[in-house]
Each structure stands twice: as C-alpha cells, then as structure tokens.
C-alpha cells in the first residue's frame, strides 16, 4: 500500500466543521451564489492538479488543500442547495428526500491502488447543516461485510443512490459505487447508508441470498481490471441489475484477476424492505430510456451493453 500523507490534518479539518453547524436563518442574509461560483472554480482547478500530480506526496498535499477549501465552501450559508455541477472529479448524490447529500472522490496512488475521500452533508429538521467526513479505512479492513461508521468507511466513489422505504422505520439508501482496487483487478460495491441518532452508518443486513445464507451487509464485486461491469438500478423492474462474474476457466476460480462477465445477469429485487437475490434475469431490450444500459445476452448480434 502507498504511504499515507497527513491523514490527521484531514480529519481535523472535517471534524472542526462538523462541530460548528450553521442555522438556516443565516442562509437568508445574503445571496451567496457568486461566492459559491468562485469556490467551485477554485475547487475544479485544485482537484485537477491533485489528480494529475506526479507522485503521492504532491497528490495528497494538493488534496489536503482541496479538502480545506471544500469544507469552507460547505460552511457557506445556502451551500446545501448549491449543485457543484461542474466539479467533475467529485461525485455528488442527493438523497431523493433532500435530507442529505454525499460527496465522494478518489486519487490514484503510486502503487496502482486508490484512496477514497468524501463527506456527508446533512440538512436537519431544525435548519442546521452538519458535515460527516468519510475516512477511508479500506487498507485496515479485515471484514468487508462489517457495519461501519463514517470514521472507518469502506471507501468508494458512488454514482447512484436508491432509497428503500420500510414500513414504520426510517428509510435507508442503497449506494452503487466504483471502488477500483489494484493493478490486476477492479471492484464495485453495493453499500447501504442509514442514520442512527443523526449519525451515518454504512452496511445493513438486507442482502438476502437464495440458499438460506445469513443476510449480508454489503456486496463487493471483483473482476479483471481490463474488463468492465454493469451495476445499475433498473427502476422499471425495481431491481439492481449486475453482470454475473465468472472465471475464464473453472481452474481459475477464486483468482479474481481472471473474472469477467459471462454475459448473463443477476439482480437484487427490492421487496418488503429487503434486497433479494434473483439469478439469471432476462432483460428485454424494448425501446425505453434504459436502452443504453441493457442488451439481450443471448443475442449474438447485439453489441456489448454500456458498462458503468
């Protein structure tokens, strides 16, 4: 693994902000749009500089500057409603109920791995804004199925959020993310974020298998780095659909650098507050707004579907 650069300073920057929430009435004092535009322009420049830096030290030093500026931007009154829609290196997902949003991004490391960063910005009922830093602890994670907090986050860059409503309970949110990995394999993850006493919790025992196995808290896929993998929410069938990964040959089982899609699809169907595994999902390629994601795996004339 790569050597960490100034992790303590990053923690301090985030926690200082989390300790000082802002009230909604402050947002009405002035129009912060021009100020937020300036913040965004600066954040774009710094994020590009960090991502393209030639080595770990320069990369993570620049990232520390980026984090400090992002924290200052998110402290600005009315920042919760600012979209940051030009900040391309950062994925920003808004909860459909507008209760929070999550920022995630990554940096490549010299050894071919990745380090992930993020924060949860939460709008509370009393009008205060809170930030919860996401501290990537992947390199110290011994159990990928463990439920974690924001302080020992199983890092990923999330690109899709799916709310799941349970009768009589607070909703939880499924997160689909790209995790990268190393020079041989890539990973994707289906994780869950929920809130307990207004604190973010990652992982939840909602992923049910087919053969009576204990429910899992998160799902991690690993496959050959030169290949790609579909993992997306198909709203019209209420399923999270993904490529079925298999080794190139049976003797390569368990060696994930030799895994790729076998052109079949599995899914997790959302039902009764749980995600239930469904194997060999048949996907019809009828004309609709999801066509870019799907193709019939049995149709040899169909080109490969778009991989996320």
From TrEMBL:
Species name: Pedobacter metabolipauper
UniProt keyword terms in alphabetical order: Signal
UniProt name for this protein: Uncharacterized protein
Signal peptide bounds: 1-24
